[in-house]
């Protein structure tokens, strides 16, 4: 039995809490800072995610032995290193600062993939001293041009541009600080044409277990149009991901990544999120994330029948290889209800009304808060409506019905999740 702390405040963290509570190894569970959804299940802790010292003190006081990190920022900022130095007896599930560069630096990730022979788009990196070279490079290559800010840029750091002159303008802007420090190095990549999906593993840095795969829908508009968002919905399993494709992913991507982590002696106990694209029949890596996805977690985690806390704990006790991940055959889909205006400016504090029943579905909260006895919107992405059925189409229909029954001013959602499958 252990006391566990989950860091983060989105649908991902609500889904993690929901699952961890089902474990008979879980004593007390806390969410920091959590949201209105987690507060119905566990105790929310009002401390900033960036305040490692206070988080550490809270853990000591509440006899927390395991911290599970939801978002990437605290990992990239070194929360694992902080705990190792100051609270060595508390396990933190997530990679340390160096290992988090797999997500926190696109240049690092590309270089890692090249070293270990992991299939990915060809690339060149340019820093602020190499403006001239970058212009020559663009002059010699053909579009579409894929420009990526090296560092974390809240999902906005990737530009895909058809026209060469426009690409050169953007390159100039990025290298002169459009995304601050994050774009002081810019990665230019070969454009890959294919369909995207995501694969997730739990790893202790030596062994790994594969979780269910998922596909998310990033654009705000139906038919995959309009601006990028954090994710408007997700589906798991992904119908086109055959056993054969999964074997390729495991042999060509997962195994060499874990080998690379071992060879570089990276301290990586955590989730790895492989953002993949299928080009022809071949999987290639678009990106690594050092955490689970949101909203992917809201379909991946509910499909896992095994005890998640037991799997995570095994990463610290060295017996991960003796475990297995049992997965339901059922399809799960999630549909995000978002605030009007999102992903651009939107208002918060709108009163949400939920139906009294949502059979066959789970409402995971994302940007919500309780004020007095009112449930209010508190972010761009508000609620993730996860449903299960024998196929993804029926599951989407079920989420759609629920979406209609939930009300708040400005409510928006995509009605076409799974349309391209
Ligand atoms: P990233 O932040 O690296 O995942 O990129 C964001 C999105 O840009 C991806 O989900 C893809 O849709 C797209 N993208 C990134 N790299 C490429 C590429 N090399 N070719 C085509 N599309 C890409
Ligand atoms: N849904 C994409 C992500 O979590 O990065």
**Ligand names:** adenosine monophosphate, glycine
The SS-based structural class is alpha+beta
In total, how many beta strands?
Answer: 22
Low-confidence regions: none
Instruction: Summarize model confidence as the mean pLDDT.
Output: 96
* CATH uppermost class of the domain at 2-96: Alpha Beta
Give the C-alpha Rg.
21 Å
**CATH fold call of the domain at 2-96:** Rossmann fold
DSSP helix count?
A: 13
Report the portion of residues in β strands.
Answer: 25-35%
* Main sheet summary: 9 strands, mixed
- Proportion of residues in helical segments: 25-40%
Shape: globular
Which architecture name of the domain at 2-96 does CATH use? Answer: 3-Layer(aba) Sandwich
In whole angstroms, the N-to-C terminal distance is 42 Å
Notes on the protein architecture:
The protein has 13 helices and 22 strands. It has 421 residues and is of the alpha+beta class. Among the domains are: 2-96, Rossmann fold; 122-189, Dna Ligase, domain 1, CATH 3.30.1490.20. The N and C termini lie far apart (42 Å). Bound molecules: adenosine monophosphate and glycine. Residues 216, 230-231, 289, 293-294, 296 line the site of glycine.
